[in-house]
Design goal:
This is Bifunctional (P)ppGpp synthetase/guanosine-3',5'-bis(Diphosphate) 3'-pyrophosphohydrolase. The protein is α+β, with helices and mostly antiparallel strands. The protein is about 50% helix and about 15% strand. Helix 1 runs parallel beside helix 3 (about 60-70), helix 7 (about 105-115) runs antiparallel to helix 8 and helix 9 (about 145-160) runs parallel beside helix 11.
């Protein structure tokens, strides 16, 4: 037991509280500090005696969240009070009514949005998705719910060290899946980048550490380079009498990792490890002219890449981001990204939504892209009757904000998601126009409804009263408004068919003497491979699943072989832990040793091999599946179904072989294939399953499937193959069997 110095802790609590008040002081109005004091005392009392997993007093967490709200998001008193109280209802005896009585309706509503739903969820639904939807419902009334939630999540990520590994994966994956994109959408770039970096630190620790080390090694060289790069610019800017600041900013670890993955290159080859940012202090009316003047100074000294100019000053991003980006060639032949913006733009880029609000009155009075987006989310919430999982899926589609700018026949600018079609545009104008759309004129030319819009297109929609939406439309629309409206129109017809299907299914199940419970329907869903019960009944109603198929379901015996295995009692992580602790002393699934204790399979979507970081996932009726933490499906599984994730690691002894894939790129020469195969088969005694080779204009590309013992074995093989003359690159690739 660690001895706790209560007096020292109390001093630390008071110090943190005073620090919070000092940071908030500039914007506090009369009575605010009294309200904050009251919230602090309430939180202290409610969380009295509670500790976090790290052992520190629980009150440290609400205080830290409140400080993030002030320092990093720029929020005011209401948010500080909500942050101090955000866990009170969820974790203590306090109720929403108590909060409303003491702090008023507004605070109570925010706390309610932040409080997780308790209770039992039907199989096939997701508690995390339901909670996320609940939180977003409050967004339509008060965006501060999301901002306080992001502060809460950021602090949880910063203190993730003290959590068990499976919780780390779950929380980190949920963050990358939902909260980092949400922070990006609200313009909170610094928070988004930190969340992404922390995600990488907990899911790909070795990769993260290697990138950090390599970025650190090049730090001095980089700083010298930045100094020499900006010297001539500073001289010129001073001569023009500019008030400005220049910063050299390294790229986030996560974005470097993303580049490495996308381009399949090592960290040394990621050329734009940093960006130069020039921030001009100027009046609102001169901003645009000043930024372009700075641009012309930069491009007088350095040649710009014409394909890399991004003008988000004339048309800001939908999250309010304004900046001018160009990539220029430095004197040493290196590409450098230069970002040019005003002080106001920089604050909006750093603090996002809250800063955007601060400047709202000065900037053009028409509704900003950010407000338009929030009102789109409101629409989506109001008319969305799909399952929470579908909702989260639609919502995520809304978060990635590559955009396309198009015009109406009258010249009004419309912003749509990247990849939007003429039909998306029609639904953006009005539901009726979308539902009756038969085609469009783009730049005076006739195009079909699935035409993909490009920046600057002028679009006129053609309609017919006889037209009505069909299932095919969902394949090519990308905006969630269009998707939701089409689903609504289709649902009316589908509901009728699904009701009939339900009647047929219930009748047949009674005949087959099968209990028509939720569990039965979940097994049926898995057996017929459909996502929801609604889809199941719809297929029965359509006749795609008939009564013969239902009979074959009754005769089907799922593969749960040995009676002693407790797979049948396992439905989530808790039941797994109970069962495995009964049979052995700890709650970790040891891959390679526990086959006789519990049923599990290695998943086909990422083919883990010993040495990979893995987790177990309890499926509906296929036992436990083992996934790599870097599996393409991992963030979604962990974010939506964290309660099904179990701790798993490789047993130390494994004589088994595992299938893995290697991609080899090189310059073709006589005898190259022979050299490659002899290293694999003769020198390292590795069995190959298949090999496909493609050569084109002297470039050789091959994919080899082979059996290895573990990641060390695979790394040794890669090192040896890279030494073969002519081989340029060898890398592991993910494959689906």
């Amino acid at each position: 037991m660690i001895a706790i110095d209560v007096e020292e802790e109390n001093k630390e609590i008071v110090r943190k509280y005073r620090q919070l008040l000092r940071r908030a002081k500039p914007f506090l109005k009369e009575g605010d500090s009294r309200l904050i004091r009251k919230a602090f005392n309430t939180s202290m009392e409610a969380h009295h005696g509670m500790r976090r997993k790290s052992g520190e007093p629980y009150i440290f967490h609400p205080l830290a969240v409140a400080k993030i709200c002030v320092d990093e998001i720029g929020l005011g008193t209401t948010s500080i009070v909500a942050a101090l109280l955000h866990d009170v209802v969820e974790d203590t005896e306090w109720t929403i009514q108590d909060i409303e009585r003491d702090f008023g309706k507004k605070i109570a509503r925010i706390i309610d949005g932040l409080t997780k739903i308790s209770g039992v969820f039907e199989h096939g639904s997701s508690q995390q998705a339901e909670n996320f939807r609940k939180m977003l419902l409050t967004l339509s009334e008060d965006v501060r719910v999301i901002l306080v939630k992001l502060a809460d999540r950021l602090h949880n990520m910063r203190t993730l060290d003290s959590m068990p590994v499976n919780k780390q994966y779950k929380i980190a994956s949920e963050t990358i899946f939902l909260y980092a994109p949400l922070a990006h959408r609200l313009g909170l770039y610094a928070i988004k980048s930190e969340m992404e970096d922390l995600y990488l630190r907990y899911t790909e620790n070795e990769v993260y550490a290697e990138i950090v080390k390599k970025v650190d090694i090049t730090k001095d060289v980089r700083n010298r380079f930045i100094k020499s790069f900006i010297r001539p610019l500073q001289k010129e800017l001073n001569e023009h009498g500019f008030e400005y600041v220049i910063k050299g900013r390294p790229k986030s670890i996560y974005s470097i990792w993303n580049k490495m993955k996308k381009q399949n290159i090592p960290v040394e080859e990621v050329y734009d490890l940093f960006a130069i940012r020039i921030i001009v202090d100027t009046s609102l009316e001169n901003e645009k002219a000043m930024c372009w003047l700075v641009y012309s100074i930069v491009t007088d000294y350095y040649k710009p890449n014409p394909d890399r100019l991004r003008d988000w000053i004339s048309t800001p991003k939908a999250n309010g981001y304004e900046s001018l980006h160009t990539t220029v060639m430095a004197k040493n032949g290196q590409w450098v990204e230069v970002q040019i913006r005003s002080k106001r733009m920089d604050e909006i880029a750093e603090k996002g939504y809250a800063a955007h609000w601060k400047y709202k009155d000065n900037v053009n009075s028409h509704e900003s892209g950010l407000e338009q987006w929030i009102s789109k989310v409101r629409d989506m919430l109001e008319q969305n009757d799909s399952s929470a999982l579908e909702f989260v899926d639609d919502f995520r589609g809304n978060l990635f904000n590559e955009e396309v700018f198009v015009f109406t026949p009258k010249g009004d600018l419309k912003t749509l998601p990247h990849g939007a079609t003429a039909l998306d545009f029609a639904f953006d104008i009005h539901t009726e126009v979308g539902a009756r759309c038969i085609g469009a004129k783009v730049n005076q030319k006739l195009v079909p409804i699935n035409y993909t819009l490009k920046n600057g297109d002028q679009v006129e929609i053609l309609t017919s009263s006889k037209q009505k939406p069909n299932e095919d439309w969902l394949r090519f629309v990308v905006s969630s408004k269009a998707k939701a409206k089409i689903k609504d129109e289709l649902k009316e017809d589908k509901k009728f068919i699904a009701e009939e299907g339900k009647e047929i299914a219930l009748r047949k199940l009674r005949q087959l003497k099968i209990e028509p419970s939720n569990e039965t329907f979940d097994r049926l869903r898995a057996y017929f491979n459909v996502n929801t019960q609604f889809d199941l009944f719809f297929k029965v109603g359509q006749g795609l699943i008939d009564t013969k198929d239902l009979k074959s379901f009754k005769d089907f015996k799922p593969a749960t072989p040995i009676k002693s295995k407790p797979s049948t009692n396992i439905s989530d992580a808790k039941s797994f832990e109970k069962e495995i602790v009964k049979l052995k002393s700890n709650d970790i699934l040891l891959i390679g040793e526990d086959m006789d204790v519990v049923d599990y399979k290695l998943s086909k979507c990422c083919n883990p091999i010993p040495g990979d970081n893995v987790f177990g996932y309890v499926t509906v009726n296929e036992g436990i599946k083992i996934h790599r933490t870097t599996c393409p499906n991992a963030p979604e599984l962990l974010a939506n179904h964290g309660h099904r994730v179990v701790k798993a690691k490789w047993a130390s002894q494994h004589a088994a072989s595992f299938l893995s894939g290697l991609k080899i790129i090189g310059t073709d020469r006589v005898g190259l294939i022979n050299d490659v195969t002899s290293i694999i088969s003769d020198e390292l005694k590795v069995n190959m399953r298949s090999m496909s080779i493609d050569t084109d204009s002297g470039i050789f590309e091959g994919e080899i499937m082979l059996y290895v013992n573990d990641t060390r074995h695979l790394d040794l093989l890669i090192t040896k193959l890279e030494k073969v003359e002519g081989v340029v690159k060898v890398s592991r690739f993910d494959y689906n069997e």
